[in-house]
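Lab channel / #folding
Pinned by the channel admin:
"Please post every new chain as: sequence first, then the structure tokens as a reply. Keep commentary short and put observations after the output so the thread stays searchable."

First post following the new format, from NK:
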Amino acid sequence: MDDARGSEVMAGWLGKHVDAVDTPALVVDLDAAERNLQRMAEFAAAHGMRLRPHGKMHKSAWFARLQMRAGAVGLCVQTVAEAEALAAGGIDDLYISNEVVSASKLSRVAALARRLQARGGRLAIAVDSAEGVRRLAQAMAPAGAAIDVFIELDVGQGRCGVAPGAPAVELAHLLAAHAPSLRYAGLQAYHGGAQHLRTPAERRAAIERSATLVRDTRRQLDAAGLAPPLITGAGTGSFALEAASGLWGEIQVGSFLFMDADYQRNQWDAAQPAFEPALFVKSQVISVGAERAVVDAGHKSHAIDSGLPAVFALAGQAPLEFFNGGDEHGVLRPRDAGGALPALGEAVWLIPGHCDPTVNLHNQYIVVRGGLTAGVVEAVVPVQARGVW
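Reply from TO:
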């Protein structure tokens, strides 16, 4: 089925009972997502934190606008294409929390900065090298616009980021030399590896190490007359720790809105609100054997980089485990000896192992109001920022 025909079919589900949704489909329980958003917004407000959710998770201007209405100051993204898609959807305050060094992409960054500035918005980006600063400055020079620039520190992730301390100070000096087109905005300090450490004690120890690096870097920047205006970072697994440190002023949480099976494996930290699963892949049982049932949702409908999906048990359903069945199939077996299998044709709701790349596999969300058993389809929402560049 081509995209146009698929969109037409899905639009026909609007206002219908959730049972009408064909499978496999990416479904959002809007009530659950809104509860998650409310809890996060209340936490940010109570702790004096700026809330900048990560749009790379949902890749959708529709959900970005939902977050802005709840008090978000803007959205983070990871790619130029994500920034362009959300800007086209009406989001005016965007931060590409990643390094961009390609000349063609930097040309798009400059053009987007100019468009957002013209409508009263702003664009920010991260850098972690002198060459990255020079390339960004070269791209921005003919644009007639300014861009906010955060210096990314490596605070434990071992991925992008300049070394804390003196190297960061040196980069800040270079940024200042390229004003006003490059505006020194502060520090990007995100420890992605800490997000899925399973125990609160492990996550606390990791963020304490990050905070030590951030604190020392800020001290050196202060001494150089380059005090960072803002320190931004944090994720769904650790944001309460960054908030408690007194160093971070903005949190970049993403997965909290939908949650996924991998985040649910984390032991809950009482300092954080509790979030519930809101993103599901609706599947259907297409074959039943003596010891297994097979659903029509394989790797094409859910990402497996963080493990296989969990099976969401509705009231009265026996607990099931999901096993790899390949591209088109998932194999279900009872979790408990003697447990019942679902019947042929029955719907089975899967919680993806990792929400971000699962979303990237789909063209649309089916947004349901009223729950997974009694709900109705409220919206069919495009995944505008699919893709990688």
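NK: The chain has 13 helices and 17 strands.
TO: also worth noting, The first helix runs from residue 3 to 11.
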